[in-house]
Amino acid sequence: MASMQNSTFETQVPTEYLIARVTQIHSSICKLESLRPSKQVNALFTQLVNLCILPSAIDISTIPQETQTMRQNLILLCGRAEGLLELEFATFLTKVPNPMDNLDLFPYYGNYVKLANLEHTILVQNGVVQPKRLAFVGSGPMPLTSFVLATEHLKYTSFDNFDIDESANNVAREIVSTNVDLEKRMKFRTCDILDVKEELKEYDCVFLAALVGMDKDLKVKIISHIRHYMKEGGFLLVRSAHGARAFLYPVVEEEDFSGFEVLSIFHPSDDVVNSVVLVRKPVF
């Protein structure tokens, strides 16, 4: 057993090296003229992701303030680059026949499938088998999670996708319009989730994308808002990040779910980037 532990320890990326490399990549990203997909942009973000999914013992809460500031900026840059990549690819899909048959051309499609499969497994393990209505907050132009869940797992569920960006929703709508079944079950709403109130009671389950609420205060405010208005016994699934993956996405801690019952916290150790937290609003 000791030798196994030692070999694990030896393969971990040292924290100092990790921070130095991430800082270096952040500096290169800051020098880019644009975050739109290109060989250079794709190469830098691929390097960053590949680095951050390596085993490491980094505790993000203990890194120096200067590194925290860099991390916050890097998360914003990752979010913008991800949005531009999705928009470009989703726009391309609207121009090909049967776009739903070509989702696997998206560079990170396999990752989304793994994450959606994982999230579905966690839901089923906690008694969420075929929810009637599901809300996905922060769906973007390329709502792959909704697509995978709707076509592979939740074939009778209605999906309402919420995004603050009308242009993202327009592209997503166009993709869905090519599929008769999905067009019946999938809607797109352009609004700030903080403006959605009583309607939240209609959902059996709400998904919160990793990039909704980019700073801690806003994330907690959104979680609290959803809890206030969602129905008793309803489920909220939140994407988070753990360890070095926290250089890519915001972190949500267990204490951020005040008033919820925490059912499951899962931190991946493979090439899936996001952690998954499932909570339920208690029934009083």
TrEMBL record:
It comes from the Eukaryota. Belongs to the nicotianamine synthase (NAS)-like family. InterPro entries: Nicotian_synth, SAM-dependent_MTases_sf. The keyword S-adenosyl-L-methionine applies. It is an enzyme of class 2 (transferase). Its EC number is 2.5.1.43. One of its GO terms (biological process) is nicotianamine biosynthetic process. It catalyses: 3 S-adenosyl-L-methionine = nicotianamine + 3 S-methyl-5'-thioadenosine + 3 H(+). GO terms for molecular function: nicotianamine synthase activity. Keywords: S-adenosyl-L-methionine, Transferase. Synthesizes nicotianamine, a polyamine which serves as a sensor for the physiological iron status within the plant, and/or might be involved in the transport of iron. This is Nicotianamine synthase. The keyword S-adenosyl-L-methionine applies. It comes from Daucus carota subsp. sativus (Carrot). Pfam families: NAS. Coiled coil: none annotated.
